[in-house]
Amino acid sequence: MVAVLVFLLSLSAVAAILFKFAKADGDFTLLSKGPAKRKAVEGKVVWITGASRGIGEVLATQFAALGAKLILSARNKEELERVKNEITSKYPAAGVEVLPLDLSSGEEVLKKSVQEAESLFSDAGVDFMIHNAAFERPKKRALEETEEGTEVTFRVNVLGTITLTRLLAPYMLDRGKGHFVVMSSAAGKTPAPGQALYSASKHALNGYFHTLRSELCQKGIEVTVICPGPIQTEKSSGGSEKRVPSERCCELTIVAATHGLKEAWISYQPVLLVMYLVQYTPTVGYWLMDKVGANRIDAAAKKGNAYGWDLLFKKKKST
């Protein structure tokens, strides 16, 4: 009788975990942390690239709500000014500076941008560097990509981001503290059929920044890598997949950063499940992605659901 009771309790516990996982929008460690720690960012200088729209704009607004001082960067100065005005109208006490930036502009230009960022807010220096800017090409097959497309993608997503990090990190090391928050992608953890270059660039970022943390963590430098799946922003177009709202993605990103997580995953199912499978049972995870690969490209071409369970059961048509 006792054994049956134990079995039923165990079964109930497993069922509860599976139900929670089915409804989750992030990994279990992330969701266990509770709200963001305001004291971790209040009064701190947060520099955000790609801040003129989408996730970058929402992150800026949420950091301002927590009392952070903001440096907003992107290529479009007018849009940055719009974001600044919207934030200061909502949070009049917020300190917001605009610093136009093109990650593909080369080391000398980026060096001047870092020097300017460090001089803002009475030379306070940058506490959090949010690497959010990214270039994403329309979905296409890996063998259809060109050398030009590869160079453009890597120049922004990888080379520019790494160069900016390399130039900023010495200032943080001098102060003995600093935090890089990297907006990577689920495509940086799993195969992403139709997004070979984007996936490759995000895998590169993951490798670089996890290694950077291992080298500098004992010198006060923190790194948090965020891997979102499909996120709903104003740029989202086509497709019928369920996407995590950008506000929720940014909320969880700040939770991960302020709790010092090394990596966090943000997505609904089935992407979250695939990430777990590839991480912990790679043979199964890669088999699953091989099953859906061609169907995902077809679905994307038709602006259908490129993340749904039904991709497993469709007959492969892509060539």
Automatic annotation (TrEMBL):
It comes from Carex littledalei. InterPro entries: KR_dom, NAD(P)-bd_dom_sf, Sc_DH/Rdtase_CS, SDR_fam. PANTHER family: NAD(P)-BINDING ROSSMANN-FOLD SUPERFAMILY PROTEIN. GO terms for cellular component: membrane. SMART domains: PKS_KR (SM00822). Residues 44-234 form the Ketoreductase domain. Residues 1-16 form the signal peptide. This is Dehydrogenase/reductase SDR family member 7. The lineage of its organism: Eukaryota, Viridiplantae, Streptophyta, Embryophyta, Tracheophyta. Pfam families: adh_short. Keywords: Signal.
